[in-house]
């Protein structure tokens, strides 16, 4: 009789365990999918993007007077990448590619165009996948974006074989630039990178955003969501959160890099740029913009920002 009761209890416990595991997985996948949808399927507000919205952030009058043309390149994934190529008033082949942040477009990155035009470069600003006029079904936080950027770089190199080519990325654009830099180490098509407010590791950043000031007590909660969000991202978009980690490749990049971060950035901590800077073994520079919030370093300290970038380029023989 006791043996039968024991067997019955064991069966009940096994059934309960199976139900518990199934329930946890269903809940995890549901929460992970919500997080994936929030990030990778982000709906971008058209009222806060576009030329009209951003034209006050750069010298729009000069832009209208310079020769420029629209660029449309086919990505490795079949969709079109749209951009604007601006010719410097003094003829040159040297070109800087501007890569914008998440939930914006090429016109958001155009604020940097004045600085590079003044330094004698042409400028190419383009819309990242699932942004602006470019195609793409999802945002992969730099994973597939780096291949798009690599194709943009190759096109610029093909058009201007002897050009000095630079990449200036902000936030997600900075991550895209760093991940593409690792791809570029063999051919060295890019001569320099300027990365403004990058994160060092995606999982670490997402965990910080999920758990906030409650870490480390709630760290398992963040890891739980990220585990299932990663499964969803792998299944729906074929990329892993683990693979978006500039800190794992930064030591391999020998191309000159300038790291920039706002001291008051509460979205991506400035310590992440410092971490990347210290781990990098190539020619490098770092500028912490006083009082600047996320992606506001240039607009907050425009003169100092410009001077620091110019100094970096001069020290690395990118300017005459």
Structural class: alpha/beta
- Termini separation comes to 94 Å
Mean pLDDT: 90
The number of distinct helices, counting runs of at least 4 residues, comes to 12
Helix content: 40-55%
Q: Rg from C-alpha positions?
A: 23 Å
User: What overall form do the CA principal axes indicate?
Assistant: elongated
* Beta-strand residue fraction: 5-15%
Low-confidence segments, ≥5 residues, pLDDT <50? 213-218
Query: How many strands appear in the DSSP assignment?
Result: 8
Main β-sheet description: 8 strands, mixed
Order of helices and strands: HHHEEEHHEHEHEHHEHEHH
Q: Reading side by side through the largest sheet, how are the strands ordered?
A: 1-2-4-3-5-6-7-8
SSE layout and pairing:
Layout: H1 2-40, H2 51-54, H3 60-65, E1 68-74, E2 80-86, E3 95-99, H4 106-109, H5 113-118, E4 122-126, H6 145-159, E5 165-170, H7 172-183, E6 192-196, H8 202-211, H9 219-237, E7 257-262, H10 270-279, E8 284-289, H11 297-300, H12 302-315
Parallel strand pairs: 3-4, 3-5, 5-6, 6-7, 7-8
Antiparallel strand pairs: 1-2, 2-4
Helix pairs in contact: 1-9, 6-7, 8-9
């Amino acid at each position: 009789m006791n043996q039968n009761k024991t067997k019955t209890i064991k069966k009940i416990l096994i059934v309960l365990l199976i139900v518990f595991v199934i329930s946890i997985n269903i809940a995890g996948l549901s929460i992970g999918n919500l997080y994936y949808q929030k990030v990778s399927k982000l709906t971008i507000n058209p009222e806060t993007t576009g030329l009209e919205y951003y034209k006050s952030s750069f010298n729009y009058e000069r832009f209208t007077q310079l020769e420029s043309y629209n660029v449309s390149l086919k990505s490795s994934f079949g969709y079109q990448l749209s951009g604007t190529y601006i010719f410097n008033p003094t003829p040159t082949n040297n070109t800087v590619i501007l890569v914008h942040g998440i939930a914006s477009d090429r016109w958001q990155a155009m604020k940097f165009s004045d600085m590079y035009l003044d330094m004698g470069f042409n400028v190419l600003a383009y819309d990242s996948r699932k942004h602006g006029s470019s195609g793409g079904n999802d945002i992969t936080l730099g994973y597939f974006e780096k291949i798009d950027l690599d194709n943009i770089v190759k096109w610029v190199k093909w058009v201007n074989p002897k050009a000095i080519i630079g990449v200036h990325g902000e936030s997600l654009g900075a991550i895209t630039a760093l991940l593409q830099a690792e791809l570029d180490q063999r051919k060295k098509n890019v001569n320099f990178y300027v990365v403004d407010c990058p994160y060092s590791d995606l999982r670490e950043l997402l965990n910080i955003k999920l758990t906030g000031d409650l870490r480390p007590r709630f760290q398992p909660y963040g890891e739980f969501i990220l585990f299932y969000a990663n499964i969803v991202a792998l299944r729906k978009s074929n990329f892993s959160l683990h693979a978006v980690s500039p800190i794992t490749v930064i030591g391999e990049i020998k191309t000159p890099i300038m790291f920039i971060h706002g001291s008051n950035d509460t979205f991506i901590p400035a310590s992440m740029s410092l971490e990347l800077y210290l781990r990098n073994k190539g020619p490098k520079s770092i500028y912490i913009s006083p009082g600047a919030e996320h992606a506001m370093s240039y607009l907050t300290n425009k003169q100092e920002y410009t001077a620091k970038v110019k100094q970096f380029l001069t020290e690395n023989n990118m300017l005459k």
